[in-house]
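Quick one, tokens below:
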């Protein structure tokens, strides 16, 4: 790893993680803030969306974080979130200053540790970032062994504190009926919380085998009993990163004579060396995604790949549109290829200074042999995976109005790129919600059912009521220009 170049994406995500933990220590001290560092998580997810192609996974995380907002953050009435500035005593001011200094020290340690242990060096002339790991695998394992078990006990202490706080709040409840209802809720929620915490300890301890073996046996038994429900899982979609020695990719090729081959380029996956990687968020290109998984092993581990080769040989348009939404870009759109094969390559990002090249690649091996329709090898694979067509597909009637409407809609939307279509829909929804938010105050104030602010108050003196009426007359409602005219006529 010495002297290797750190990809810009990983560097930005690493910096985002550093600032996330630093900002978390600050935000958790804000009065009235959520119990977890919500905003740093949102910041991290947004930075990952900007620097990576993980389709809708990060958006799903952002949606889940909205459940962590309390009523104060979701309050629609203005003015509830503002707090009056009160004079603080000198002990509180001193404590706030010490907290700020401690946070700055944490920021400095995080920045120093990142630069030191990953050997970050910026080459301003070439505009690149160099890195090298300054620790060994044994040192990293020892660090995990030292840190993992204390973090478990830290989580236990935090959970106990929350349970004791909830129990203290229960003792302050007035009335036996409310107290009974509160103790039932506390018992149910507390039991579920403790059970989920114990279950989550098992996958959490996978990172360090020593800690995993020292966990309480009851936690292992509880996790084994509910493992099929997938209530807790190990962190991350890809805990073990692939492609560190080069990103494996499968490249399909077609030919009419078996000698001159033309590559079949997909819309999203790496293929053409001069094409930059597209931004697909929030779309998930399923076929391109599966092609990457197929490249991680032999083609026999992905039986669907044999079916894909068959459909390309048959020239099935629905399958071709999965490869290229605009059929004219497909190299065999006029006539299906006679032969199809697949090669496995390893891809890397090009080095800085290589003009016109985004990728560089190296051939590894043949992934799928050259086959044609009726080829014994292809027939054997289809029979082995149970993919042979046993009967011709049924013809579906397209005379119904619904079928015709769906066919027309698909024909109109098929030329559009999926990410552009999804972003258009999201922006349309956002525009509608924005207009609704602008019109909501006007509709509330002009509604005849809106409660009058003084209805529930005691009648004031004539002098106060006269002054209030003058103020009301002097300040007309900007959302209703006709209300003032109506009052004058009366």
């Amino acid at each position: 790893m010495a002297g290797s170049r750190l990809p810009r994406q990983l560097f930005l995500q690493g910096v985002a993680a550093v600032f996330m933990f630093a900002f978390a220590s600050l935000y958790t001290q804000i009065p009235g803030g959520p119990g977890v560092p919500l905003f740093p998580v949102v910041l991290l997810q947004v930075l990952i969306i900007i620097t990576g192609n993980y389709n809708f996974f990060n958006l799903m995380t952002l949606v889940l974080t909205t459940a962590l907002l309390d009523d104060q953050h979701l309050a629609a009435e203005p003015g509830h979130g503002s707090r009056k500035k009160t004079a603080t005593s000198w002990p509180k001011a001193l404590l706030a200053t010490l907290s700020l200094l401690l946070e700055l020290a944490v920021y400095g340690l995080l920045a120093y540790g990142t630069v030191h242990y990953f050997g970050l060096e910026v080459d301003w002339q070439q505009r690149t970032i160099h890195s090298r790991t300054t620790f060994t695998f044994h040192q990293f394992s020892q660090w995990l062994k030292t840190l993992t078990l204390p973090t478990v006990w830290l989580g236990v202490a935090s959970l106990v504190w929350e349970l004791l706080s909830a129990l203290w709040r229960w003792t302050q409840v007035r009335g036996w009926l409310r107290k009974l209802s509160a103790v039932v809720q506390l018992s149910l929620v507390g039991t579920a919380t403790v059970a989920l915490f114990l279950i989550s300890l098992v996958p959490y301890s996978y990172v360090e085998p020593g800690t995993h073996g020292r966990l309480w046996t009851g936690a292992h038994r509880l996790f084994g009993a509910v493992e099929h429900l997938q209530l807790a899982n190990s962190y991350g979609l890809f805990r073990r990163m692939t492609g560190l020695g080069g990103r494996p990719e499968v490249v399909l090729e077609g030919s009419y004579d078996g000698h001159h081959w033309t590559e079949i380029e997909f819309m999203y996956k790496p293929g053409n060396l001069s094409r930059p990687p597209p931004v697909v968020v929030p779309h998930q290109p399923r076929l391109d995604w599966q092609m990457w998984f197929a490249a991680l092993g032999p083609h026999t581990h992905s039986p669907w790949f044999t079916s894909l080769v068959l459909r390309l040989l048959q020239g099935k348009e629905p399958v071709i549109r999965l490869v290229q939404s605009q059929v004219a870009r497909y190299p065999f759109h006029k006539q299906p290829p006679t032969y199809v094969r697949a090669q496995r390559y390893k891809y890397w990002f090009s080095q800085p200074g290589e003009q016109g090249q985004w990728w560089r690649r190296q051939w590894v091996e043949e992934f799928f042999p050259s086959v044609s329709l009726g080829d014994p090898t292809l027939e054997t694979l289809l029979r082995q995976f149970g993919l042979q067509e046993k009967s011709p597909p049924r013809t579906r009637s397209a005379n119904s109005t619904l079928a015709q409407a769906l066919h027309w809609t698909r024909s109109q939307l098929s030329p559009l790129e999926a990410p552009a279509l999804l972003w258009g829909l999201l922006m349309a929804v956002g525009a509608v919600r924005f207009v609704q938010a602008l019109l909501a105050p006007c509709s509330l104030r002009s509604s005849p059912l809106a409660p009058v602010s003084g209805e529930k108050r005691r009648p004031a003196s004539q002098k106060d009521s006269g002054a209030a009426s003058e103020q009301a007359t002097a300040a007309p409602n900007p959302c209703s220009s006709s209300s003032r005219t109506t009052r004058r006529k009366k």
